[in-house]
Specification:
CATH class: Alpha Beta
Strand content: 15-25%
Largest sheet: 8 strands, mixed
Number of helices: 10
Oligomer: single chain
Distance between the termini: 45 Å
Helix content: 25-40%
Length: about 300
């Protein structure tokens, strides 16, 4: 297989996102798709949907790490590096995405450069913004990265997000990325901060490129004013944005999920949504006539 889409779903709390991602993915991609699950209960919930959408379901073990919150992020990078992810060129997609258009350009760029990344909206690495602060925090854990960190901040590069990554499986860049993930294991979202520092190095030697401006990685809350929703290819509900009204993603995600409930896509109408471990669904929603609705006090 030359081009494959892959995901990594690490717990029942995320199956509601993965279902919507698969539902929208299949409207724009009919190629090989592999859903990796790290828990038996997650795999059992997603098995009917994978059958319905003609996706392969694989049970995987996450790598051992020193910080549990970074296990999923680091495992994703390890799976690119060691060939756990399938295909010659693999497009990794987080669960919390809505696919709005064709994904061909990601594969084309990855085939030309080796790695294709996506800028999160119009975020950049410079100044005193959130990304620069995370990079400086990294140096507190890994002082040997200070020179590269300062160069990244000074360069004010477009900031890649680790939720949408396409590349040649086994490429040296993924091995490099994994090594950095281990160096910064005690940092917040270690894979992403590492990627923000490594991208300029890879780009300089022609080993990576980035699709900029948010078209392929657009947040409901941080969408650039110049970008129309009609031009967005991937909507990214980062930080549970799809089920947290203050993050402005509910209106994008909820109609699609409710359509899945109505049609019992992948058996989702039989799920106990409030027992999946997703605290935001439990906190913010109720079921009314088989549909998920926001509670009145959080609308």
């Amino acid at each position: 297989m030359n081009r494959v889409v892959a995901s990594l779903c690490t717990g029942p709390a995320h199956v509601v996102y993965e279902l919507v991602k698969l539902q929208t993915l299949r409207q724009h991609w009919d190629g090989p798709t592999v859903v990796h699950c790290s828990q038996d209960d997650t795999a059992a919930l997603l098995d009917p949907a994978c059958r319905e959408f003609d996706c392969e379901l694989r049970r995987v073990e996450l790598i051992e790490v020193a910080k549990k919150s970074n296990q999923q992020f680091s495992s994703k990078v390890a799976f690119f590096a060691d060939g756990t992810f399938p295909g010659k060129h693999c497009l990794y997609l987080d669960s919390d995405l809505i696919i709005c258009d064709r994904l061909t350009e990601l594969f084309e760029q990855a085939e030309e450069y080796g790695v294709c990344l996506t800028q999160f909206c119009e975020w950049r690495t410079g100044g005193n913004g959130l990304i620069a602060k995370r990079i400086r925090k990294w140096v507190e854990v890994d002082p040997t990265a200070e020179e590269i960190a300062e160069r990244t901040i000074a360069g004010n590069y477009p900031s890649p997000n680790g939720g949408i990554v396409c590349g040649r499986v086994g490429a040296g860049e993924f091995v490099h990325w994994l090594a950095w993930c281990k160096r910064g294991m005690q940092t917040f979202i270690n894979d992403e901060t590492a990627l923000q520092m490594l991208y300029p190095i890879w780009a300089e030697r022609g080993a990576a490129t980035m699709l900029e401006g948010g078209t392929f990685n657009c947040s409901p809350k941080h969408k650039p004013p110049s970008l129309s929703w009609s031009d967005v290819v991937i909507c990214h509900g980062h930080g549970d944005s799809f089920v947290r009204p203050n993050k402005q993603g509910v209106s994008h995600w909820l109609p699609i999920f409710n359509a899945c409930l109505r049609d019992n896509v992948g058996g989702c109408a039989e799920w106990d949504l409030f027992a999946l471990g997703n605290k935001w669904i439990k906190q913010n929603f109720v079921m009314v006539d088989g549909q998920l609705e926001l509670k009145g006090d959080v609308r």
